[in-house]
Design brief:
By secondary structure, this protein is mainly α. It is built from ten helices and no strands. It is globular, with a radius of gyration of 20 Å. It starts with a helix and ends with a helix.
């Protein structure tokens, strides 16, 4: 193997390891808010008998009803965490690695550097969506389960049930793929484009603490703005992948059809259900991911 090939392999391995670490840290810290977000997104308004009155009511109800001991009450907020843990390492590795590769390819074009960053983010998001969608189907189906943590099916049991019932296709383990593509594509286009463009606009601080806070603030804004823009796709994804209103009947079929049904029956604001817990998760979570990636990648470059 030539020295150039060794250098490229080393760089790729650093990007993959740093991206995987970023995803694992983010999911372990922020998963409870993802459970709450999904619960809000799959409820169909005040007529839903399981409707939560508020964010506080959702937290309290999950804690009280889905665990019989304190630790199990906490575990209720970690329903469906195994699929994202299994997915986060390869998913974020794919996300950051492909972003770097798309960015490198686009650097040879005549595109403005700022626009190239956004397009690279879009490409990374679409690639990530294809990898993660089966895990999302299993995760959402587990998060929608309101039984106590000890009584819910296992992750692998739920996956086997989905496959045996509907297979691997767009009605089974890849249900909601178009909405997942929209969610991840739009999010990452803004997420990477905003973060790196804004970060390059402001000079870095010499003080490590101030520099950390600068990056965290930009990452927080990046995650928050991205979440506000892409949430209609997220709501559509949760409705398609979650339980249908009438057993045996498929009401939510495709991404834009689902958005149209929600808008017609529940109003425009229903497309923004779960926005608060989503921002609470992906605002700081988005900052955490970028910082873990940057600092881990920098450490690996210097020490390995």
């Amino acid at each position: 193997m030539s020295a150039k090939q060794q250098c490229l392999l080393r760089e790729a391995s650093h990007q993959i390891l740093a991206g995987g670490s970023a995803g694992l840290v983010e999911i372990c810290l922020m998963h409870p808010l993802d459970v709450v977000k999904t619960r809000f997104q799959i409820q169909r308004g005040t007529s839903d008998p399981n409707s939560y009155k508020s964010l506080r009511d959702c937290f309290r109800t999950i804690f009280r009803n889905e665990g019989y001991l304190f630790v199990n009450g906490i575990l209720g907020f970690y329903k469906g965490i195994l699929p994202p843990i299994l997915a986060e390492t390869p998913k974020r590795a794919v996300k950051f690695f492909t972003f770097e590769q798309y960015k490198k390819i686009l650097s040879f074009t005549s595109l403005h550097p700022g626009l190239a960053l956004s397009i690279a983010g879009l490409g990374a998001g679409l690639t990530e969506a294809v990898v993660v969608n089966p895990f999302e189907v299993v995760k959402v189906s587990l998060q929608a389960n309101r039984n106590a943590f000890a009584e819910q099916p296992s992750t692998f049991g739920q996956a086997r049930h989905i496959i045996s019932t509907n297979g691997f296709g767009l009605q089974g383990l890849n249900k909601g793929l178009t909405s997942t593509l929209g969610r991840h594509g739009v999010f990452n286009m803004i997420y990477f484009g905003f973060y790196f463009n804004v970060k390059n606009m402001f000079p870095a601080f010499q003080d490590p603490t101030l520099e950390f806070l600068r990056k965290f603030g930009i990452g927080l804004a990046s995650g928050t703005i991205s979440s506000c823009v892409n949430i209609p796709f997220d709501v559509a994804k949760s409705r398609i992948q979650g339980p249908q209103p009438v057993p045996g009947e498929i009401k939510y079929r495709t991404c834009f059809q689902t958005m149209a049904v929600i808008y017609r029956e529940e109003g425009y604001l229903a497309l923004y259900k779960g926005l608060v817990p989503k921002i609470m998760r992906l605002g700081p979570g988005g900052a955490v991911m970028l910082l873990v990636y940057e600092y881990t990648y920098g450490w690996l470059q210097n020490n390995w």
